[in-house]
Amino acid sequence: MRARPADPRSFPRHLLAATCLAFLAACSSGDGNSAPMAQASAGAVPADGRPFVVEEVAQFNEPWSMEFLPDGRLLVTEKSGALKLVEKDGTTTGIKGVPEVDHGGQGGLGDIALHPEFERNGWIYLSYAEAGDGDSRGAAVARAKLALGADGGGSLSDVEVIWRQVPKVAGRGHYAHRLAFGPDGHLWISSGDRQKFDPAQDMESNLGKVLRLNPDGSVPADNPFADQGEVAAEVWSLGHRNPLGMAFDAQDRLWVIEMGPKGGDELNLVERGGNYGYPIVSNGDHYDGRPIPDHDTQPQFNAPVVTWTPVISPSSLVFYSGDEFPQWQGDAFTGALSGQALVRLEFEGENASEAERFGMDARIRAVEQGPEGDLWLLEDGDGGALLRLSAPPVASPPAAG
């Protein structure tokens, strides 16, 4: 692993006053490429204003998602269809047997999740873009058994598609296809509107929805629209646009963060049967300039808890519970693509607000909490780096005399 050089731009200056014990690190020899705050004193904030040290662990080709294994190793997906295993020393090997993906635009291999009983049954879940007839395509979710090799790498077997977007449509945008297992053991899937707008309100389509399934892909009998037909039965909430982050908080509430149109990125508290209004309402407008009524004009739709205009293009969502940054326990983090930042959100019950924005000088595709409480980020695009964020080291006080 190597430390990232500090980027002194665009970090909140108020962080420098985070503690009365803070000191700046001793100046380095001057090329700007030394590890940030290697000599930090107790409670100090790194000289670039960020309260963490950044290490680059590995690089990938268009990485999209990551998931830690119980032994501390990491799985990373690449949009082209590769699934990589990252060892603790940062070396990477490939996993064979990944389903064929339709790679292009926003599509390709997407999210990855482990079954809650993965250590017993070996099931992993992958989302990806799948080609259909003619020029059509849509997201799919498959589960498979993961077997790891003794010397790295591994393979998938018993691959089975358990869910598909309906209908498949032209274009390669807004798949969303984030995966999460809830505290009740059900599989949750975010399904984007595929840039087709109206299907987000159509209960004969599962586009623009949040879905709740059993781990085998069957539909739970207590879903809110279970009596309205096969597709509607999958739906937990509707009226979403491009929900790219999905996570449960410590109180088992589901939060979804999604890209708005021209303005109006949203953080939503997802309720059973809730309708979040898109494309009828939004706090943004269409890209061609046509206005969309704001949420407050039609209060029958669920309003977002937080909105962003200008947009940040949120890409992921994780609630933090670790000890590496105890001051952030209970907060959430999202990666910002156009915002090129890591954004911290604070919560008070069912209310939330943006607390801090840390410039990362790169589009951030995914954020995860590591097994030791550190934060891990994936940069977007070719050569996208896997970054580990940890608290600054605490140096011993200088010797007396």
Structure characterization notes:
With 401 residues, the chain is an all-beta fold. It has a single domain (52-390), classed as TolB, C-terminal domain (Neuraminidase, 6 Propeller), CATH 2.120.10.30. 1% of the residues lie in helices and 39% in strands. It has one helix at 118-121, and strands at residues 2-3, 53-61, 63-68, 74-78, 83-86, 92-96, 109-114, 123-131, 136-148, 154-164, 169-170, 176-181, 187-191, 209-213, 235-238, 242-248, 254-259, 265-270, 306-308, 318-319, 332-336, 341-348, 351-359, 364-369, 375-379, 382-390. The strands form five sheets. Strands 3, 4, 5, 6, 7, 8, 9, 10 and 11 form a nine-stranded mixed sheet that branches. A five-stranded antiparallel sheet has the order 1-2-26-25-24, with no helix packed on it. It is globular and about 75 Å long.
Q: What's the topology here?
A:
Elements: E1 2-3, E2 53-61, E3 63-68, E4 74-78, E5 83-86, E6 92-96, E7 109-114, H1 118-121, E8 123-131, E9 136-148, E10 154-164, E11 169-170, E12 176-181, E13 187-191, E14 209-213, E15 235-238, E16 242-248, E17 254-259, E18 265-270, E19 306-308, E20 318-319, E21 332-336, E22 341-348, E23 351-359, E24 364-369, E25 375-379, E26 382-390
Parallel strand pairs: 6-10
Antiparallel strand pairs: 1-2, 2-26, 3-4, 4-5, 5-6, 7-8, 8-9, 9-10, 9-11, 12-13, 13-14, 14-15, 16-17, 17-18, 18-19, 20-21, 21-22, 22-23, 24-25, 25-26
